[in-house]
Amino acid sequence: MVETMRRVIVPAVAVLVSLATAAPAAATPPQQATPAPASPQQKVPVAEGYGGAVATVDLDASKAAVAVLKKGGNAMDAAVAAGAVLGVTEPYSAGPGGGGFMVYYDAKKRQVHTIDGRETAPQAMTATSLEGIPFAEAVTSGLSAGVPGTVAQWDLALRTFGTLSLKQALRPAIDVAAKGFVVDQTFYDQTAQNADRFKDFTSTAKLYLPNGAPPPVGSVFRNPELAATYRELGERGPRWMYGGQLGKEVVATVKRPPITPGATRTVRPGLLEMRDLDRYRALRREPTRVDYRGMSVYGMAPPSSGGSTVGEALNILDALPEVGLHEYLEASKLAFADRNAYVGDLPGVPLKALLSDGFAKERACLIGDRAIPAPAAPGQPDGDYGPCATPTGKGTPPADEGPETTHLVVADRWGNMVAYNLTIESTGGNGIVVPGRGMLLNNELTDFTFGPAPGDPNLPAPGKRPRSSMAPTLVFDHGRPALALGSPGGSTIITTVLQIMVNRYEFGMSLPEALAAPRATQRNTAQTQAEQAFLDRYQAELTARGHELVLNPEIGAATALEFVDRDRVQAVAEPTRRGGGSALVVRPRR
Ligand code: GLU
């Protein structure tokens, strides 16, 4: 029963726990933790072994990471190499025209670092630049393109923590782009979903709608222009983007999108200028940290709301005597109320207070037998915490956000770990390929609040980074690396990461079970979205407690890994969501 479930104390060591009837997700069919074959030609979602491990959504990307690890590269080298391959094989989710966040564990120094490669708004953008613009119109526009951060992030990541040069790290991706990859159903479907807007840009139609239609499943898709772009980036370095010819072409594309003659779509031009690219920097930031059930959980600080929102929700759960799905949904609801009120890329975010135990206790106190009406009001993270303060303000649900991006995890033989979220925002970004360069541009600036919304922390401003939900997460058990985790899915990223942690650490599922289990997402909205299998199992019980559940066919596409021993790692990807992912290890046996 949902409401009477007790916490199951689970060591941070992966064991298949038999939960009988106690935990609500016990009915989830467990995934078999079988080791990956030595050189698989098919994706497998679970692999366990030694010498390093990776999980991504894509076999080519996972293979690239393993190849780098086998040659002596470290986890950061492998993460960048795999990320660059995803720019080829998952071009609608990631690529050099986008941005992302990395959380990195340096095993030697025993330190956690993050790198913020989030896109920035142009200097010409103000709080009212997006006001009144229909969201759908902004999605496919030059206006929504921020300064791409990915290239600067790769460069900073490799220089600071890697051993490879950018040129070396891009090699596997150049290879895949030049030789091609086999089109799968997901690539086909994502192309088909985008066909209506891709056809409106000459460059995009030429690349992704050859012969006027999506490339068929099973065909080999090559992107020689992207291969050349990566090659030249490797030769010339990041300045080629942030002040050189590639940057000029990005700016020209954003300001004058290559609209197909006869297209009737309104395409708003962008505000980007070369000066915006010139001043772009990937940034190292302090990670967020919370202590949860005796473990330390590190995440991404603003401009992402991932670390603060996952962290606050975990703190709230930690303050409750019993945790079931009702409590999971309520903790998420309250944490989202605070996220929406306080978190953005601006000075003065009360991060410490949001992640404090006192605040969490005050918020946890609101959770009772019945669902709190949503949108719930934000709390007061002011350092003055009563036993049970009932906030009186007005809460807001999250604004529209696209549902796609991608996430990968890598660990190496030294125990370094990376959790890396990369994105171009919508599936297909802004839909505009830079002519001759084989890369789509992002529409990340749609993550800003469009307004009018006085006081909203996420209104656009010159140089500002839109608030993200990306939540690459690392967990340590008494200082030892335990877990790396993340997902795509816009604001459902936060709930997917949170639910997987709840499944793993509250309900005692194995990591493969925790990823496979059906999901629900409560983000301070009146209705809780849930996958069909979740509705089938839990709708009646949760409805009886005041939750209103509606269908969301698929939530998230997570990747994770867990140290099952000091040097044995289990890598886990989705078994079915988004076509399933690819987990690989360097060696199945010691
Ligand atoms: N733009 C989203 C964010 O930063 C990520 C892309 C997505 O998953 O929608 O939160």
From TrEMBL:
The gene is ggt. One of its GO terms (biological process) is glutathione biosynthetic process. This is Glutathione hydrolase proenzyme. Residues 375-387 have a biased composition (Low complexity). The active site is at 405 (nucleophile). Residues 375-404 are annotated as: Disordered. Pathway: Sulfur metabolism; glutathione metabolism. Residues 1-27 form the signal peptide. The keyword Signal applies. Cleaved by autocatalysis into a large and a small subunit. Its EC number is 2.3.2.2, 3.4.19.13. Pfam families: G_glu_transpept. The keyword Hydrolase applies. One of its GO terms (molecular function) is leukotriene C4 gamma-glutamyl transferase activity. L-glutamate binds at residues 118, 447, 468-469, 490. Belongs to the gamma-glutamyltransferase family. NCBIfam families: g_glut_trans (TIGR00066). It catalyses: an S-substituted glutathione + H2O = an S-substituted L-cysteinylglycine + L-glutamate; glutathione + H2O = L-cysteinylglycine + L-glutamate; an N-terminal (5-L-glutamyl)-[peptide] + an alpha-amino acid = 5-L-glutamyl amino acid + an N-terminal L-alpha-aminoacyl-[peptide]. This enzyme consists of two polypeptide chains, which are synthesized in precursor form from a single polypeptide. Keywords: Acyltransferase, Glutathione biosynthesis, Hydrolase, Signal, Transferase, Zymogen.
